[in-house]
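seq/struct pair 1
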Amino acid sequence: MNIKGLSAGLTLAAALSLVAAQAFAQQGGGRGGFQLAQVVVESDAFDDGGIIPDRYVSRGDNVQPGFTFSNLPENAVSIAIIFHDLDVALGGGTEDVFHWSAWNIPAAAGGIPEGGLPDGAVNGPSIRGQPGYVGPGAPAGPRYHHYVFEFYVLSDNLDLPATATRDEILTAMEGKVVGKAAYVGRYRGSE
């Protein structure tokens, strides 16, 4: 190949690379992520990644912790929460322990108070099959279980009964998620 052909080939390769990079960026790739809002979740109950106090565990007072939300996108209408224990696989399968869910929490509320939900929110089912929060219950042992509160910021409310399963909640959220955050707590029972 001569210099002129090599130069033309490099110019074409550079142009194609630029087009591919622009398409990747428009689809949310690169350093900008997937263009979801970087929602901030905070709690006075325990630090993110910290040990969950007995007040919030099922063997303790079993009080639902409060959270505040900030940096929500302008099109945020509601928040949905899924709370689960990552360190358990039930019945030989891949499902973990589904501790609690809530949805249609008004984005304008800016969070949820300790022990309750704002007006209009739906208190979904727990591991017990009844609506309401069920705190961590890991047994005593050498390591902590990781409990995750997943917060989905939605552009609409969900039209679901209070008995909806995790799969039904996730399906209903499809196409409505405009932001997401997670808050993790660790817990192990005492001997």
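seq/struct pair 2
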Amino acid sequence: MAAELVAAREQSRFRIGSWILPAYTHLVIVWLFAPIVVMIVFAFNDTHGKLNLTWTGFTLKWFEHPFAIPTLTAALYTSLLSATLAMLISTTLGTMIALAVHRYHFRGRGILDSVLVMNIAASEVVIGSALLTLFIAFNIPLGFLTIILAQVMFSIPFVAITVRARLAGFDPALEEAAQDLGASPFQTFALVTFPIILPGVIAAALLALAICLDDYVITSFVAGNTDTFPLWVYGATRLGVPPQVNVIGTFIFLGGVLVSLLLAGARTLGNRKAEEDADG
């Protein structure tokens, strides 16, 4: 009888534990997506004032002219261009750093690791003020160039660490086999190394793009008179954020979702092809 009671209690605890964690997970997901849902909903709000905070009706007119505000469109273009350029540069440099740290043992390797981690852990206010001091000391005019330089600087550590995580499971015997078969160092990298680490490089590039695109704190220090999308939105909050901001934010979110779906589909097709090749 006692054994049956103990078994019943354990089963009851197991049942409670089996729904607590899923329920908590769903609550966290709802909490994370709540602002995005509100943004999308108010992109359809038929507001007539400067403050798009009260639901007054459904409309599609904001989607018909999402770029009706020239300064907002210019700020969005600046953000997309600077983030794309910074992503390309930081992905290239960060991948090279990751390969160097993974392959070679050199003096200062520990210091380099510490610098990468400190760059991520440091306050954005500290990084922004340090970059501002640096640019002023070298008489570099604040603007589009300094925005790119700042974004490259703070996104390189994220790229390097992400690619290094992919390299952790890399088998160097594959490169050695390619070289034994007569492949040059460039051919070995292009045909063996890069395809293997490509998923990590893509993930690092997308992470860098997202970080550069939505950065406000560091960019506000080095932008000068140049407006990016986050800077424009923050400046507009004093007068009222127009619905076009929600529309553009919705487009950016849907673009991220589309990229994620495409990558997931490509990965599924790749795994299916690999299974077919193995079976064949």
